[in-house]
Amino acid sequence: MSQNILNELEQIVNEGNILVNEPMNKHTTFRIGGPADYLVMPTTIEQIAEVIRLCRQQGIPYFVMGNGSNLLVSDAGFRGVIVQIYDRYRHVVWNGTRAVVEAGCLLSKFGSEAALRGLTGFEFATGIPGTMGGAVAMNAGAYGGEMKDCLVGVTMMDMDGLTRLYPADELELGYRTSAAAKQNLIVLRAHIQLKEGNPDEIKKRLAELREARKEKQPLEYPSAGSTFKRPEGYYAGKLIEDAGFKGYKCGGAMISKKHSGFLINYNSATAEDVLNLVQIVQKGVFEQFGVELELEVKKLGDF
Q1: What order of strands is seen across the sheet that includes strand 262-265?
Q2: pLDDT tens readout for residues 223-274
Q3: Confidence category of residue 14, pLDDT binned at 50, 70, 90
Q4: Is 68 helix (H, G, I), strand (E, B) or coil?
Q5: List 69, 90, 102, 176, catalytic entry
Q6: Which of 49, 121, 243, 279 has a CA-to-CA distance to 156 between 20 and 30 Å?
Q7: Is 176 annotated as catalytic?
Q8: Residue 30, Cβ neighbours under 10 Å: how many?
């Protein structure tokens, strides 16, 4: 893209918040992905809106992301602007048992703060390796809890840069989906309601969940979390294991031997390795069980 575009971006966010030709393997938990033309890290709602408006006015492709925990970026990278809402937009404002959380805040950080305050209701999400924005958009869930259990509202921005607070009954929260995903809205702030709890019980529960994740999930390898959505009436990991793909490799990508629902980057995998393995598994599971596995991980770039 032209120097003029870079100049305009620098007028919106300062030069230190723009990375040019930035390798995306530095910004995804998969540790995979070629370069993005520009990676922009806004610090305010106004900056987010202005960057989006500029991209739309100039016809520049753009993508809004958090910490890249559910993302597979192509080896060719992304021709356009990545708008990263992450550690430069992560503040939390508490008011008793309620909190307003900026979209870039890590779930682990918020969950730890809630626990320190003796507040319960967020333990399920504290170990999920993502940001609040992504968790809201996907209605993230684990260990019997979902974001919809604690959300009372979400401040979101539409593609015209207009912002408003959506109450809980307008969020359309379902299995790994929401109004944000369906209407292409950008999550800016989550309004969360928790409950007063017993600090010792909260601490114990968090320790139990940490141990469960360590025991069952391949945390020692880069991954994007659960690779496939849960098919109705089944578990993706069990289907994959029963189909004989546990430990199956394709290049540097592998179906985890610890949990078949996780596809891991065990040896400098490329995005092509991952996608080839995904397609092999999808084909094998369908042929054996007649079940179509749908990707939970989002793809970005040219595949």
Answers
A1: 223-226, 262-265, 253-255, 249-250
A2: 999 999 999 999 999 999 999 999 999 999 999 999 999 999 999 999 999 9
A3: confident
A4: coil
A5: 176
A6: 121
A7: yes
A8: 27
Strand partners, 153: 167, 191
- Measure the CA–CA gap between 34 and 40, rounded to whole angstroms: 16
Catalytic (active site) residue 112:
no
Give the CB-side neighbour count of residue 45, counting CA atoms within 13 A: 16
Token output for 67: 């910490």
- The verdict on whether 230 is a catalytic residue reads no
Residues 44-66 have a mean pLDDT of 96
Q: Do residues 155 and 189 touch, judged by C-beta distance below 8 A?
A: yes
Instruction: Single out the catalytic residue among 69, 223, 226, 256.
Output: 226
Is residue 72 exposed (0-12), middle (13-18) or buried (19+ Cβ within 10 Å)? Answer: buried
- The torsion defined by the Cα of 262, 220, 66 and 119, in degrees rounded to 10, comes to 100
